[in-house]
Structure formats: C-alpha cells, structure tokens
Amino acid sequence: MLWSTQLILLLHKPYGVLSQFTPELQSRWGCLAEWVPIPNVYAAGRLDADSEGLLLLTDNGRLQQRLTDPRFGHWRQYWVQVEGCANNSQLNQLQRGVMIQGRRTRPAKARVLADQERQTIGDRNPPIRERRSIPTSWLCLELREGRNRQVRRMTAAVGLPTLRLIRHSIDLMDGETTLSLNGLSPGMWREVSRSEDQRLKRLLNRSAAHRSA
Fold first, then answer.
1. Contact 35, 55 (CB under 8 A)
2. Cα–Cα distance list, 35 to 14, 30, 87, 132 (Å)
3. What are 131-169's pLDDT values in tens digits?
4. What is the predicted pLDDT for the residue at 129?
5. Per-residue confidence at 3, pLDDT binned at 50, 70, 90?
6. In this predicted model, what pLDDT tens digit does every residue of 44-91 receive, in sequence order?
7. Angstrom distance (rounded) from CA 36 to CA 18
8. Cα–Cα distance between 98 and 76 in angstroms, integer?
C-alpha cells in the first residue's frame, strides 16, 4: 500500500533549529521536538539550522523519498537576503548556473523579490548583522537540486553573500498551487488540507507508475 499512513505537517522552521527531532550533543542549535510535539514524523528534506522556512514532516517514508529524490527535481523557492544589490549580470549568472565545489549548478530561476512579497517577511530572532556602509536586498531564487548549502554558495559565487535564507515554497509539479509558508509564522505548523493530502497521494501514484513503466 502506497499510503498506509497519512500524517503530513507543514512547519515554518525557525532560525536556530536543526531539521531533526533529536538534539546534537554540545550543539548550540535546538531541534524540531521543541516545536512539534508529534511522534514518528520526520522531515522530507532538510534546512540548515541557520536557515528558516518550509519543512514538510511526515511518517510516510515513500513520500519522504519521493520529495527528496533528485530525479524528480521539485522546484523549491527561497527568499534570500543578500549583502549588496543584485544587477542583471548577477541574476543571469544564477539563472544559467555557477560553479560551486567543482560542479556547475543546474539552471535556476532568479529575480529581485517584489516589494509586496518583501512586506510579508517578519524580523528574524536574533536579527541579522548588517554593515551600515553596505546595503542589503532580497532575491527570489528557485532551484531543482539541493546540494550542501547550495543557495549560500551560489549567491557568494556572484558576489552577493547570503545574510538570511528562507525556504518559501515547494512545487509538487502538478500544475496547482505550491505548498508554501502562507499563514505560518516561525515555529507554527499545520496538517495539510484534504486537497493537499489528495495531491500528495497522486504524487506517489505517479511515482509508482513511473517505476513500473
């Protein structure tokens, strides 16, 4: 059975929290158990402790595997505060792909974050460190891969060091609305809606059909 369990949560992971339910010995970071008192769920994918944003938590191992399998390349959208103001050349480099750790990244989507989107972002606790002499700006970066600290390495490669990183949404690649942070403040979580649950079921069914073809 592809869907023996149906517990799926969307969490807005705060800054300073590991993407796991057990603390690390002598680590200064917290863990998910401090925010989600639900047993037997695990993150489908991860965010670094110093990053924020959307995590999907589930007890369905097949779903975890499906959403993190690089063969399927789900678009993930990140809102990134960087040091400096991006120009068209830097955005074009991010879109084409940049060399990090000896390999070029896959083509991405990159743009300056719209003012309306920017206004929905609250302050971080603790706040970022800013230098008065250097302006900051916000980018929207969408990737189909998840290499180690990839967003930070990509923006640094084009001269825009990342100051703050928020994963805003995950695209299920079904032509419908993305799963996003909308309505979730840092630390808040919710169960997926009935329609979202059905979409995730169809996602697994497509995977099964793909394997058997």
1. no
2. 9, 9, 38, 34
3. 888 999 999 999 999 899 999 999 999 999 999 999 999
4. 87
5. very low
6. 999 999 999 999 999 999 999 999 988 888 999 999 999 999 999 999
7. 12
8. 18
The predicted pLDDT at position 205 comes to 87
Identify whether the C-beta of residue 44 lies closer than 8 Å to the C-beta of residue 57: yes
Q: Catalytic annotation on 48?
A: yes
Domains of the chain: residue spans and CATH: 8-70+172-212 (3.30.70.580), 76-169 (3.30.70.1560)
- Check: CB of residue 167 under 8 Å from CB of residue 64: no
Q: Residue 83 contacts by C-beta under 8 Å, 6 or more apart in sequence?
A: 131, 134, 136, 160, 161, 162, 163
Please tell me the distance from the alpha carbon of residue 121 to that of residue 109, in angstroms, as a whole number.
20
CA pseudo-torsion sign 82, 84, 90, 93: negative
* pLDDT tier at 211, thresholds 50, 70, 90: low
SS (H, E, C) the chain: CCCCCCCEEEEEECCCECCCCCCCCCCCCECHHHCCCCCCCEECCCCCCCCEEEEEEECCHHHHHHHHCCCCCCCEEEEEEEECCCCHHHHHHHHHCCEECCEECCCCEEEECCHHHHCCCCCCCCCCCCCCCCCEEEEEEEECCCCCCHHHHHHHHCCCCEEEEEEEEECCCCCCCCEECCCCCCCCEEECCHHHHHHHHHHHHHHHHHHHC
